[in-house]
Amino acid sequence: MRMKCRVQQLENGAVRIMCGPDAQSLCQVIGCDEDHALCDYPVAGGKTCDKRMCKAHRTRAGSNIDCCPDHRAAAAM
């Protein structure tokens, strides 16, 4: 998991440094904080969904093809 730090200048002149997971690297299933793959389900314009997901929330739909929970049923067809 990638970590990202932000520096914030406080009103009293002090500086606060806050570090935590980079939101763009996390699984997009609510309550999950891991990452592993992007959804490969095709969407409009020749693109793929690209929703980030962890191992627990991905479904393997083929060799090197992963689907998010939203597209799991459609990929099974």
Describe this structure in words.
It is built from 1 helix and 6 strands. It has 77 residues and is mainly β. It has one domain. The chain has a two-stranded antiparallel sheet. A hairpin with a 2-residue loop joins strand 5 (59-62) and strand 6 (65-67).
In short:
This protein has one helix at 72-75, and strands at residues 3-9, 15-21, 37-38, 52-53, 59-62, 65-67. By secondary structure, the protein is mainly beta.
Write the layout of secondary structure elements.
Blueprint: E1 3-9, E2 15-21, E3 37-38, E4 52-53, E5 59-62, E6 65-67, H1 72-75
Antiparallel strand pairs: 1-2, 3-4, 5-6
Please count the helical segments: 1
Number of domains: 1
Strand-residue fraction?
Answer: 25-35%
- Strand sequence of the main sheet, in spatial order? 1-2
- Largest sheet, strands/sense/barrel: 2 strands, antiparallel
Low-confidence stretches: none
Shape: elongated
Question: What attributes does this structure have?
Answer:
77 residues; mainly beta; two-stranded antiparallel sheet; 1 helix; 32% strand; elongated
